[in-house]
Every structure is written in structure tokens, then in C-alpha cells.
Amino acid sequence: QLQLVESGGGLVQPGGSLRLSCAASGFTLDTYAIGWFRQAPGKRREGVSCISSSGNSTYYADSAKGRFTISRDNAKNTVYLQMNSLKPEDTAVYYCAADSSGFYVSVQAMCVLFTGALDPWGQGTLVTVSS
Q1: Residue 61 has what pLDDT?
Q2: CA distance 131 to 129
Q3: N-to-C CA span, the chain
């Protein structure tokens, strides 16, 4: 069974940092592009950052540029999202997902146009930025 598990969420003060992890089980991540997505209460899910299978190509939403860094350690079968200078508007449930079918031709397309083509999805980890 292909499964992704997110961890690392929590409560942090504005300006603080968190590192989210997305670990795979049942398959190896190294052949798939992986993305981080988030959904705030009452809002639609949005792409935050995506990384190619090799790690050579990355994409960041404007809201994440300069503050978030996506990386992957294929030896550990894990993708990370380092989040710095967190703001209250970053509060959301963060999900990771894999483009296991190779549907998207670029990580930008994956992050911006993501649809049901992404599979699997993790269960999400809650990030709350509040003082």
C-alpha cells in the first residue's frame, strides 16, 4: 500500500520556524515529484512548494518564496519543508502528495494545477501560527 505520512506540525509563534517531513512507505519516493499543499479553514487547498524526483527543480508559491525551502533525502525516503518567518496566514493543514503517475510535465504545473491526478496524499499535519 502506497502511503505518505506528514509530521512536524504544531503551534508556533509568528516569526518562528517549523520543519515538516513527508515520509513514504510501501514505495520509494526517488522516482516521483512531491508537493506540499495546504488548506486553511474555509479556503480551498493550494500548492505551496513542489520538487522534482531528482531535486534539481523546485517551485514555490509566491506566499512561500524566500521563507520556505523544500528538499528531499531520497536515501531516507523523505521530503521536507523548512518553514521560516512564519505568519498567522500560514496557519493551515499541510499535506504532501506524490505525482506517482507522472501526470505533470513540470513541478510548477503540479503545484498550480494539481487535481485528482496526485496520488497518494498524506493525512495532513496542522500548522498553527499564533501568539
Answers
A1: 98
A2: 7
A3: 40
